[in-house]
């Protein structure tokens, strides 16, 4: 289980939290022979686990990530009795074989005994990686009408919307709006990490 420093995040949802920052610091070291910049990046404990899962496909960290989430949801936030469904934010890259947020939500669903739906909130198509779009208005434009509801089993329910990284909240706001539009009762949001900058 990772040590965390939760922060409340605001949006069009009822309540939400990011469990920690993703990176603690990132110092520029210079460019390599191909002109690519290199950084000495230090991550939070949870940020490091997420990095290993996403970019090294290290599934061994799933136990620590899930234990951290369960401890926060049951002992700190104390929301598990309120929730009726878990919903992962659909990935930007739909062709990636291994989807970290879906893996985490699936494990969390099994451990908490809460239903999971993977086909309620879906993307209408591929979107560019939002981490590569710095302009908030451009991110908002990309996300307009990107989510649709395929399965209405979450209608009238209290759901936890789960994502890996919070930056500006644009993705989570768009997803929450789509869920409320089909009659979800309450949307709560949890992200593993957040950027230090909210731009």
Account of the 3D structure:
With 199 residues, the protein is an alpha/beta fold. The strands form three sheets. The chain has a five-stranded mixed β-sheet with strand order 1-2-9-8-5. A two-stranded antiparallel sheet has the order 3-4. The protein has five helices and nine strands; from the N terminus they run ββββααβαβαββαβ. Helices cover 30% and strands 27% of the residues. The mean pLDDT is 87. The longest helix has 15 residues, at 62-76. The chain is globular. It has a single domain (7-23, 41-194), classed as Rossmann fold (3-Layer(aba) Sandwich), CATH 3.40.50. It has helices at 45-56, 62-76, 100-112, 136-143, 170-181; strands at 7-8, 15-21, 23-31, 37-43, 85-88, 121-123, 147-149, 158-166, 186-194.
Quick synopsis:
With 199 residues, this protein is α/β, with parallel strands linked by helices.
Q: Can you tag this structure with a few keywords?
A:
single chain, 199 residues, alpha/beta, Rossmann fold, 30% helix, globular
The spatial strand order of the largest sheet comes to: 1-2-9-8-5
Biggest pleated-sheet summary: 5 strands, mixed
CATH architecture: 3-Layer(aba) Sandwich
N-C termini distance: 29 Å
Q: Which residue ranges are poorly predicted, with pLDDT under 50 across at least 5 consecutive positions?
A: none
């Amino acid at each position: 289980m990772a040590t965390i420093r939760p922060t409340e995040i605001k949006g069009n949802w009822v309540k939400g939290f990011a469990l920690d920052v993703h990176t603690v610091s990132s110092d520029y070291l210079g460019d390599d022979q191909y002109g690519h910049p290199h950084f000495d990046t230090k991550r939070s404990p949870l940020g490091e686990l997420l990095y290993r899962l996403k970019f090294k496909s290290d599934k061994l960290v799933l136990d620590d990530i899930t234990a951290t989430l369960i401890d926060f949801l049951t002992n700190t936030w104390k929301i598990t009795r309120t929730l009726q469904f878990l919903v992962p934010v659909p990935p930007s890259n739909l062709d990636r074989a291994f989807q970290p947020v879906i893996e985490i939500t699936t494990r969390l669903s099994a451990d908490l005994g809460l239903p999971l739906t993977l086909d309620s909130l879906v993307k209408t198509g591929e979107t560019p990686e939002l981490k590569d779009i710095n302009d908030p208005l451009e991110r908002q434009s990309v996300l307009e009408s990107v989510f649709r509801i395929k399965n209405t089993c979450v209608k009238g329910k209290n759901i936890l919307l789960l994502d890996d990284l919070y930056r500006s909240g644009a993705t989570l706001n768009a997803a929450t709006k789509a869920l409320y539009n089909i009659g979800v009762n309450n949307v709560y949001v949890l992200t593993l990490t957040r950027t230090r900058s909210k731009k």
